[in-house]
Design goal:
There is one protein chain. By secondary structure, the protein is an alpha/beta fold. The protein has helices at about 1-10, 80, 85-95, 125-140, 155-165, 190-195, 215-230, 245-265, and strands at about 15, 20-25, 30-40, 45-55, 65-70, 100-105, 150-155, 175-180, 205-210, 235-240, 280-285, 290, 295-300, 305. The chain has a ten-stranded mixed β-sheet, sandwiched between helices. Strands 11-12 form a two-stranded antiparallel ribbon. Strands 13-14 form a two-stranded antiparallel sheet.
Amino acid sequence: MRKLMGFIAALLMTACADASEVSAQTAGGGTVVRDVSIQSTVLGREMLYSVYLPAGYTSSKQYPVLYLLHGYGGDQNDWWVFDDMADDADAMISSGEIPEMIIVTPDGGTWMYIDNCYGNGINYEQYFFQELMTDVESRYSIRRERGSRAIGGFSMGGYGALRYGVMRHDLFCHVYAMSSVIGGYGATDMADIITSYSPSELPGITLECGDRDYFTYDNREFSALLTRLGINHEHIERSGGHDWTFWSACTPKILRKVGALFREGTTSIDNVSTTVRKPQGIYSLDGRRHNSLQRGINIVDGKKVVIR
């Protein structure tokens, strides 16, 4: 990948104050700071994240922020090793296609971005909102209104982005979920979560999935549910599988989508409810609650409803 070769060829790696933290200037003048360290009280361990800063970054102005979550088995540097995210951001900012922004890629382990996944006692969701976001948005010069903050991710990270964007809709103006897990793996199904919220509360949602992905059917089904609930969203299905070839093709679209919203910057955090609701029951695709439904095949109003 161009980004990986750039890191090797440029030899611009510079040690920062933290021994584990390194900074690399991109060909387009931006900077990727890798392995920023947090000593997490919530998790009782050191946690890392990486961050992209646009060319000319200065603490004298504030920037919108995009959080991007990796998939199962990845880490905070996937976006900078396997993708050309930094190069794409540099080029699109330089051309004026998108505004300057900061991009943050945290390490999410294998924990589905939730608390106590499979009873492991790791409260990652608490860490994300109580410690990670606090550290990022105090360490870097970031605008903190809802209209200047978006979240995205792929696979496990797609689930995390959907979950956070819906349950903390007061914080994010858009969710971009690629090849997304919709439920399972120790996490509550997004169909059960999203039905607890009014369409008017929610941020914009983009689902993008390949037609040969593990989660193609789940994304189609979830999109159908959103349509039936009257939730405005975009569902993109195109040729592709569950791999970086597919996800890298999403990168410019993510940047354009959130860049347009950041440029508008019209959504205020003060106008959105901060209530986080516990899912109640299981919902069929018509959006109605059916507490008696079980996982598997059910018959509702004479129609077959599959609950996965």
